[in-house]
Amino acid sequence: MYLLDTCVLSELVKRRPSSKVTGWVDAQSESDLFLSVLTIGEIEEGIAALSAGPKRDTLLAWVRRALPERFAGRILMVESAVATAWGEYRGRSRQTVPVVDGLIAATAAVHHLTVVTRNVSDFRRFDVSVFDPWG
């Protein structure tokens, strides 16, 4: 089962998405694909930076309606076990890790998921399985 990073979702809504990424996503069972609530936050952040207009409106509808419908029951929260795993990793490693990436990695670890991302190097430092659908 898989935890999709923000870059994967962003790729899926591009005008010309990577056929490798769309092909990989289409080949998976929908029930095996999960999101972190933090990924939704990162997408909202990107949309908020856009000027008002049709593109922004379309993306808002996608992130606020289409994604929650598609991933109903498969959007994972940052609960206590995730926070604990993240804190333990940070304490042990003493590495400066972006908070969101660390929490996404901890979410994957707690739920035994593979992180699907283009940013493999960002997640390799964690004890989680990582897959690059662009590769």
Structure report:
The protein has one domain (about 1-130): 3-Layer(aba) Sandwich (Rossmann fold), CATH 3.40.50.1010. About 25% of the residues are buried. Strands 3-2-1-4-5 form a five-stranded parallel beta sheet. The protein is an alpha/beta fold and about 140 residues long. The chain is built from seven helices and five strands; from the N terminus they run E-H-H-E-H-H-E-H-H-E-H-E. Helices cover about 55% and strands about 10% of the residues. The chain has helices at about 5-10, 20-25, 35-50, 55-70, 80-95, 100-110, 120-125, and strands spanning about 1-5, 35, 75, 115, 130. The model has no long low-confidence stretch (mean pLDDT about 95). The longest helix is centred in the middle third of the chain and has 17 residues, at about 55-70. The protein starts with a strand and ends with a strand. Helix 3 packs antiparallel against helix 4 (about 55-70) and helix 5 (about 80-95) crosses helix 6 (about 100-110). Strand 4, helix 7 (about 120-125) and strand 5 form a beta-alpha-beta unit.
